Amino acid sequence: MEINLKDLLKKYKSHPYEDHEIRTPHTGVVHINVEDGQEVSGPTGRWKHRPGTLLYVLEREGNPKRITSRYTGFVAKLRKDLDGSFVQAGEPVMLIRHRLNKEEIIDRILREVLYIFPAPQRARYFFTPEVSAAMEKDKKKALNLKEGDEILIMSLMKRDTLLSYEGPAGVLYKVYFNHGDLKEQGAPLLGICSPERLPFVEKMIQRIRTEWDD
Amino acid sequence: MAKCRQVSKYTLALKKLPLLFERFVVKRDKIIIANRGEIAIRIMRACRQLGLDYVVVYTEEDRHSGHVRAATMEKGKGAAFKIANYKDPNEIFAVADHCGATAVHPGYGFFSEDFRFARRAAARNRPITFIGPRWEVIRDLGSKINTKRVAKALNIPVIPGSDEPIYSELEAESLAEELFQKQREEGVKGPSILVKASAGGGGMGIEEVTHLDVFRQVYRRIQNYAKRQFGDEGVLIEQCMKDYHHLEVQLLCSRHKEVVHFGTRNCTIQSTGRQKRVEVAPGFDPDHVAYPFDAEKVLKQIVAYSIRLAKEVEYDNVGTWEWIVTRDGRPYLLEVNTRIQVENEISACISRISRQKGPVNLIKEQIRTALGEKLRYSQKHVSFEGTSIELRIVAEDVKRGFAPWCGTITRFEFPQEPWLRVYSHVPQDEPYEIPTEYDPNLALAIVWGKDTEEAKARAKEFLLNVNIAGEDSLGRPIVTNLQYLYRKVDDILRFV
After folding, report:
1. Beta bridge partners of B137
2. B355 labelled catalytic
3. Choosing among B60, B128, B437, B438, which should be mutated to test the A contact, i.e. which has the most A CBs within 10 A?
4. Which CATH number fits domain B160-239: 3.10.350.10, 3.40.50.2000, 3.30.1490.20, 1.20.120.1560?
5. A177 touches chain B (CB under 8 A)
6. What is the pLDDT of residues B437-489, one digit of tens each?
7. Which of A81, A99, A117 is the last residue of a domain?
8. Which residues 146-165 of A are in CB contact (within 8 Å) with B?
9. Alpha carbon distances (Å) from B264 to B7, B345, B439
10. pLDDT tens digits, B69-127
11. FRET partner for B169 with CA separation of 20 to 30 A, picked from A131, B36, B310, B397?
């Protein structure tokens, strides 16, 4: 599959933003800590160990949970009316308008370049114990995949199903889920790159790094 | 004489006082229903019959579920709270406090057999009543191993196998070898063993091993599954009984040491994953099927054993004692489910309490007893009438090992009959996408007949008149187990 990198970069440059809706992860009383339009930052530090700006505190059963920003950007559509009230799980509290950085642009473009193995169902996904062990053993070693390899466990309706890889043989270049994540049907799970395409992908990444200005 | 009459009046009033007080206690309670689907609907119905207020909880995936709709239609928007997860106790208690609930009904699954949850409900700063047995009872009987130990001490027969969870592969293999050897010595044809997740329940995390060579592979698989699903990799190993019936004894006990049974059920017809699909009450029917043993005697035996164990542990709510009965009529205690069951309704359907109108509502009885009421009747007041069959309608592909089907239901219609009750959370007037987070159970149908023949005929009539349509994301039509259920109705109560 050929892509026009120039056009893709142009598209992202014309609108380099992504809106992230911030919803309450569970029930509790909300105490808001930011203002509409305020600039907020995501986690920082070498290991992203310093939390981002405190957005709000969600207090449940006497336990305050500090909800910090996972993104750098600006607060929009703040629900100030929720301040001090008991909310249900999944209640939208605000939006964070985030400007995509270089690495994120690379990630978005890679999705169009790699062969994507999508989630066949809305389910939770795990690597098989054998694959997990192999990845854990040597983190730097690339995992080669070919059709029929049993690679994932799909946990759906309390039943575990082994998933075999279907697609072109290649190197597991990108993993789009965390162990046990719930993924929607069709969401990318794995990004696979054929060995002959690897140099092209590496070159493309290099070009984005040079051309994109954070 | 006048003075005497006056004293009598006061005495009478004093005698009535505890009863009035009990009723007052019940009426002022508010129940939080910590479950979903059809059981939430049945709990709502029981609350309504008792005149109790209630609230329900739901997750994002369940926002279109019938239990949310029914609650909001009856009590308004404030009666349904969206939570992050049914398995998060903090969510349940936070909502309970916010809406002033005084008791929590766990239904089945989720927290129903979680003694830590029941203990927390009782021990927190603002205690709420756990609608179920005392947490100590749940802890003691919730462990299959402990139940086995207590039963053994009371001379109640149990299945040969491990007495405690096994964490060592070598130990497991040694026991497996011993169980194979024992069966060979007993002349069992095709000996096999079961490997079970110790912390599991409801038929999940169980595999059969027929050859010792593959034991380690299965052991590791179950261990991994147990760790992932229950956070405990302990595994149980026991002899796999073949050619048996799966029976249950329904008990109801109160906080006042009263014990009453509501007969037996037969739950032998199960999917390959050991999920029950057709259940019938009573457990055997010698008028309908010829058994190679004295069926009445076996039923009496398992009821007596169950009551013996219940009294020993001072059981104090509804509970199910699960048994297997082999073709030669030998019963073995399997486990105790310290909760309401999916299938309790068929026991209720054939039970009558003298001076009470119509069938029993076991969930109502469960709530009453958990809130401290006395039963107000004893075993001699309980009688049984007819046969009841439960059919679990599930979106699953029977031909593909009962694989769950995911998609959207566009039509769901079933007949209305006086001998039929259908519980379903699937809306009948709008499309419904089956959440993939939970089992694809669609409905429970409870059929009653004056005898087994009539109940079977009615069950088949019902199944022929269910109208269900839907499609998956690729446009393929819905797959259900309706035809399987129809075929299986003929097999009920028989050793086939």
Report:
1. none
2. no
3. B437
4. 3.30.1490.20
5. no
6. 888 899 999 999 999 999 999 999 999 999 999 998 778 999 999 999 999 99
7. A99
8. 155-160
9. 47, 12, 26
10. 999 999 998 999 999 999 999 999 999 999 999 999 999 999 999 999 999 999 999 99
11. A131
